[in-house]
Amino acid sequence: MNSLALCSLCLFLIAQSPWLTNATVFGDGSDLIGQICNENPEKKIECTNILRADPTVLEEAEIFLKGLAITTDVPAIANCALYYERTIEDFTNSLNALKRQDPQTANYLADIAGDGPSSC
């Protein structure tokens, strides 16, 4: 697997926090899993079923990413592994702010959380 595909996988896994499965983006009502899985129409059903059925995806992704960072010499992967947990925490905090009906804080926290995948 080349580093671009690996980085894409990492970004995909980062975005799959179980706390965000009901979050909406761009106000169109689509949930995050649906939007991610729509990127690959041929595998949409399989992608959606896997991500919705397994609540351990987040933990497994972190374990995989950290192991990969140890066994490869790819700076982008090491960076993703380093900021993975913090990124998930930031997204969780953003979702909690939405639940408290504080959209300004939610937007700010989501923006901060986006820095992790952006630098990946």
From TrEMBL:
The keyword Plastid does not apply. Residues 1-23 form the signal peptide. This is Pectinesterase inhibitor domain-containing protein. Keywords: Signal. The keyword Signal applies. It comes from Glycine soja. Coiled coil: none annotated. InterPro entries: Invertase/methylesterase_inhib (IPR035513).
